[in-house]
Design goal:
It contains 15 helices and 28 strands. The protein is α/β, with parallel strands linked by helices. The protein has an eleven-stranded parallel β-sheet, with no helix packed on it. The chain has an eight-stranded parallel β-sheet with strand order 5-8-11-14-17-20-23-26. Helix 3 packs antiparallel against helix 4 and helix 5 (95-123) runs antiparallel to helix 6.
Length: 586
């Protein structure tokens, strides 16, 4: 291994070694940046005529404009890309800086949309549309945050952690796109033209955000194709070149040793920062009171132990509350419950009993419920947009839209999720391992659907992945099984992507397996696959024959395992939660 003896180097020799490696890395970084420009520019050149007239014209184009056209070449909205960069980039030719300018312009567009939403809200008479505009303000704020993180990340370009660097950019840009789409989703079933107005206002911002994702994706493709020595994850990973002093007990320094012990400890012996108990034996009787004690934007884990009981609360772990860990007495013993729902006037986005926004959230032995009932339609128990969040031995109960995996990287292990329609939905990059999906008895004339993934752009690194899970039904459903129909999923958005692998599928799933959303929508662009499943409902003989339903190889299936798809070895494995990086041993 290239850096195999690194941990044993000491003194001046170690310092010199680190300097040499740093110089070498800077050299490779320069090569990569040059390669980015050359490779993209070549792509433009291949598409141009070689006539003398065109050659003369191209000679008049400024160097900056050539760079702009090159960086815009892989985007889907080229006119918007060229126009926005040419009016804002000045004489910049560095591809990295041009992409940053693109992010800045996108942020400015969203800020303008935010101002317009305030004006629209003042004129709005439809209560649902007014609430949707309220949600848009919050969602656009999240979108700006993700674009800002992407902007800052590009300023820290570091080839040492290239894979992680690109993965972060893609997931944050996907988040920015998702939040804009969620804003527009809120206007469904409204009676005014506010939705159409908002769509026009967000058009350019959406195009520029998706262009940013296209640029980053193209860079990733180019670097993979170049196969520059030393750039592979195995030979140049942060773990292999990290200073020995920056590791504690074999784990990266950012991982709290206490976190790993918490996953193994019984609740009674956990040393929590705050204890919540309905009987008064803790510091607080409600969880919301405990949230006020969480330090803002901390990198240290803050542990809230919530003793057994049913807590009727509406919780928001906001964006300033990072590295929060909630521990209960068990998924059926400690339960947070609410009943907000769409029928009674609350937008789906705001129906969640618990909303988790702050990054690096962990929940263990907790229950989350929306008790509104099937007749109240959309009623979310748990909404998650926390990047690198973990849920272990938790239970989410509801009917329609139980678990909203809204955005970013999420990991669920040994959890139970119950519901009727689209009860796991959203556009996060979410892995479910050893989980149980329980179909509940629906209303008359309703069909049950387990998943509704919401991937909007073909380049987004998002999907719902169920691995070694059990898809089954509750007893009340089984009594009426012959009169009811259930499906694995349906495409909520154009590039919906769901993979079910190494799982047990019960016989209440229809032979067709998958259900259309409406007509032929997304049937050619979705990506659905089943791999090495078992059980009576796993037989694929009579599955739908849509173009988007794929049979994948073992190698392709491995791309959707937690270690590869969400980089879980870096953040899930060190946490101490039970975790399988690759394919399960069946």
């Amino acid at each position: 291994m290239a850096f195999g003896g690194y941990n044993h180097v000491s003194g001046d020799q170690g310092l010199n070694g680190r300097k040499k490696k740093k110089i070498a890395i800077i050299g490779v970084s320069s090569i990569v940046l040059v390669a980015m420009v050359v490779a993209v520019a070549v792509g433009v050149g291949h598409g141009q005529s070689t006539s003398s007239g065109n050659a003369a014209d191209s000679g008049e184009v400024s160097t900056s404009m050539k760079a702009i056209k090159a960086i815009c070449q892989p985007t889907d909205y080229k006119d918007a890309c060229v126009q926005s960069l040419s009016s804002s980039a000045g004489n910049i030719t560095d591809p990295k800086e041009l992409i940053r300018v693109g992010f800045q312009v996108a942020m400015n567009e969203i800020k303008n949309a935010l101002k317009n939403s305030t004006v629209l809200k003042e004129l709005e008479k439809d209560p649902r549309a007014s609430k949707a505009l309220d949600d848009c303000e919050e969602l656009m704020d999240y979108s700006i945050d993700d674009l800002q993180k992407s902007f800052d990340q590009l300023g820290k370009y570091d080839v040492i952690n290239l894979d992680d660097y690109v993965a972060d950019l893609k997931i944050w840009l996907s988040g920015a796109i998702t939040y804009q789409e969620t804003c527009l989703d809120g206007f469904e079933n409204t009676t005014s033209n506010a939705g159409e107005s908002m769509k026009k206002v967000l058009k350019t911002a959406g195009e520029l955000s998706r262009n940013g994702l296209a640029m980053v994706s193209e860079i990733s493709t180019i670097l993979s194709a170049l196969q520059i020595p030393g750039l592979s994850r195995r030979l140049l990973s942060s773990e292999e070149i990290e200073d020995p002093e920056s590791k504690i007990g074999g784990f990266p320094s950012w991982v709290n040793v206490g976190n790993r012990r918490l996953f193994l400890a019984r609740p009674a012996i956990i040393k929590a920062d705050v204890v919540v108990a309905k009987d008064g034996s803790g510091k607080y009787k409600t969880v919301n009171e405990a949230l006020n004690d969480i330090p803002k934007k901390s990198n240290q884990t803050f542990v809230i132990y919530i003793k057994q009981g049913v807590y009727h609360e509406h919780l928001i772990i906001n964006k300033s509350m990072s590295h929060v860990m909630m521990v209960g007495d068990g998924p059926t013993k400690t339960k947070i419950t609410g009943s907000e729902n769409f029928i009674d006037g609350t937008p789906t986005f705001k129906t969640a009993t618990v909303s988790v926004v702050g990054s690096n959230f962990i929940a263990k032995d907790m229950g989350f419920e929306n008790s509104a009932g099937a007749a109240k339609h959309q009623a979310v128990a748990l909404r998650v947009q926390s990047d690198m969040s973990i849920f272990y031995n938790c239970q989410m109960d509801g009917y329609q839209d139980t678990l909203y995996v809204h955005a970013h990287r999420q990991f669920y292990r040994d959890c139970t999720i119950s519901g009727t329609i689209d009860f796991i939905f959203g556009n996060g990059a979410a892995i479910f391992q050893n989980c149980k999906m329980v179909v509940r008895k629906p209303l008359e004339n309703q069909q049950c659907i387990v998943t509704a993934q919401g991937r909007i752009d073909k380049r987004e690194p998002t999907a719902l992945v169920l691995q070694n899970c059990t898809i089954t039904a509750e007893r009340a459903y089984n009594v009426l099984r012959k009169t009811l129909k259930s499906y694995l999923g349906r495409p909520w958005k154009q590039y919906s992507r769901t993979i079910i692998m190494q799982s047990h599928i019960d016989n209440m799933i229809q032979p067709e397996g998958w259900l259309p959303w409406m007509g032929n929508f997304a049937l050619n662009t979705l990506f659905y696959s089943e791999f090495e499943n078992r059980g009576p409902g796993s037989v694929q003989t009579n599955r739908v024959k849509w173009r988007g339903v794929k049979k994948i190889t073992p190698q392709h299936a491995a791309d959707f395992t937690a270690g590869k798809f969400i980089g879980g070895d870096k953040w899930i494995k060190p946490s101490g939660v039970p975790y399988t990086s690759g394919m399960m041993a069946m």
